[in-house]
């Protein structure tokens, strides 16, 4: 592997670990983030000349730690925090929490209820997911400058409120887990379909990390239906990754080679869905989404999909999640049962809320294409391409638009 690729891979795989380690050591997210970024920048300069180290993650952590101490020295912060940092290796180990995982601690810190929900999401994507500011801004459909201010305010709030860096006690976990699940789902989605035009179309590092951390939370709360539902949803979605991109182009669910799907992940996901059904408890958002994915992954040919069951599940989902994106996805299922005309009337009513969302225009373009309204379909495809950031998705949309003639 050439040095540039090694740096990129180390950044993807080790960012969260480096930031979490430095946050634990110095108790300051700003110091942790800045030092981690400086370490990556140093790797860009040195690895081509010195060679890729045997353990890139350890190299980044050591380098980032030195950068952090240098910053503290420069700022003359010779207080107890600085002294503790210098003699860290001589300190007695902390008592283990419910689960001793630095990245999980970092997530609970970033997802603390003292922070606004949008700040929790953005901060976790930056501090845990390692996404760049433009990528996070695209994920939230806001300006990059506004996103930067949001993250800066969130870190300042953590410092001012002395929000602790730890996994909550067992009795506090149920009240805190919902926000964490929201964040993990967003991290997973960024890996499932990356928003940044300069990143890989699919980011298995992010989907893998989201799944790993969701497994940890399930170990904490094995009876929480939404934790199990989210894990099942992630597994059934990740199972399709090997077939989702071909020749640099995103492949739709109906066109995917289902023989390439990961059967082990599908088996586990289906087992978890059945487990929640057997519990006899009214399902929440993630459990219903997992059930929808279970229907899609239970047949070997897309033509055999039970769309009536999919629509029934969406009807159940819209009662617990009023998001216009859910309504849009429901319309796609509606088109399979009642036709594109009925679905288009539903989609058009969502325009005011989804005008800046590329998938709205892509869905509308497909429905117009099916109705033979080529000029309108082309215009909708153009808008979807303009708003989309994922290179593989842009390639798919462009091909579909060009097929209109």
Give a nutshell description of this structure.
With 405 residues, this protein is mainly alpha-helical. The chain contains 20 helices and two strands. Helix 15 (324-338) packs antiparallel against helix 16 (340-348).
Labels describing this entry:
RNA_pol_sigma70_r2, 68% helix, transcription, Serine Threonine Protein Phosphatase 5, Tetratricopeptide repeat
Question: What can you see in these coordinates?
Answer:
The chain is mainly α and 405 residues long. The protein has a domain at 322-402: Serine Threonine Protein Phosphatase 5, Tetratricopeptide repeat (Alpha Horseshoe). Helices cover 68% and strands 1% of the residues. Helix 1 (3-26) runs antiparallel to helix 2 and helix 7 (133-140) crosses helix 8. It is globular and about 70 Å long. 43% of the residues are buried. The model is unreliable at 87-98 (pLDDT under 50).
Q: Which fold name is given in CATH as the topology of the domain at 322-402? A: Serine Threonine Protein Phosphatase 5, Tetratricopeptide repeat
What is the count of helical runs? Answer: 20
For the record, the CATH class of the domain at 322-402 is Mainly Alpha
What is the correct CATH architecture of the domain at 322-402?
Alpha Horseshoe
CA gyration radius, whole angstroms: 23 Å
Which H/E pattern describes the elements? HHHHHHHHHHHEEHHHHHHHHH
CATH superfamily of the domain at 322-402: Tetratricopeptide repeat domain
């Amino acid at each position: 592997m050439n040095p540039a690729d090694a740096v990129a891979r180390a950044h993807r795989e080790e960012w969260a670990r480096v930031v979490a380690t430095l946050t634990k050591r110095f108790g300051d997210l700003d110091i942790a983030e800045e030092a981690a970024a400086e370490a990556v920048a140093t790797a860009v300069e040195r690895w081509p000349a010195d060679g890729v180290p045997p353990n890139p993650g350890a190299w980044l952590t050591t380098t980032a730690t030195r950068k952090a101490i240098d910053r503290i020295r420069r700022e003359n912060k010779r207080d107890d925090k600085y002294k503790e940092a210098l003699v860290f290796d001589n300190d007695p180990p902390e008592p283990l929490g419910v689960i001793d995982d630095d990245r999980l601690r970092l997530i609970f810190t970033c997802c603390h209820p003292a922070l606004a929900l949008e700040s929790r999401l953005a901060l976790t994507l930056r501090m845990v997911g390692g996404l760049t500011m433009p990528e996070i801004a695209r994920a939230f459909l806001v300006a990059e400058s506004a996103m930067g201010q949001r993250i800066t305010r969130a870190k300042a709030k953590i410092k001012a409120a002395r929000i602790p860096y730890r996994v909550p006690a067992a009795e506090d976990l149920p009240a805190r887990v919902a926000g964490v699940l929201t964040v993990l789902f967003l991290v997973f989605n960024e890996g499932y379909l990356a928003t940044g035009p300069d990143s890989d179309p699919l980011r298995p590092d992010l989907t893998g990390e989201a799944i790993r951390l969701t497994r940890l939370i399930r170990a904490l709360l094995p009876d929480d239906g939404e934790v199990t539902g989210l894990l099942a949803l992630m597994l059934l979605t990740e199972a399709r990754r090997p077939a989702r991109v071909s020749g640099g182009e995103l492949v739709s669910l109906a066109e995917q080679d289902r023989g390439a799907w990961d059967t082990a992940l599908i088996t586990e996901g289906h087992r978890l869905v059945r487990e929640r059904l057997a519990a006899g408890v009214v399902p929440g958002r993630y459990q219903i989404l997992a059930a929808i994915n279970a229907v899609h992954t239970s047949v070997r040919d897309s033509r055999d999909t039970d769309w009536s069951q999919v629509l029934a599940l969406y009807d159940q989902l819209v009662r617990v999640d009023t998001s216009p994106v859910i309504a849009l996805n429901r319309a796609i299922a509606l088109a399979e049962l009642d036709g594109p005309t009925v679905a288009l009337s539903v989609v058009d009513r969502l325009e005011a809320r989804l005008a800046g969302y590329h998938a709205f225009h892509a869905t509308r373009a497909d429905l117009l294409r099916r109705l033979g309204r080529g000029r309108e379909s082309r215009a909708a495809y153009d808008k979807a391409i303009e708003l989309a950031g994922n290179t593989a998705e842009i390639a798919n949309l462009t091909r579909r638009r060009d097929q209109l003639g």
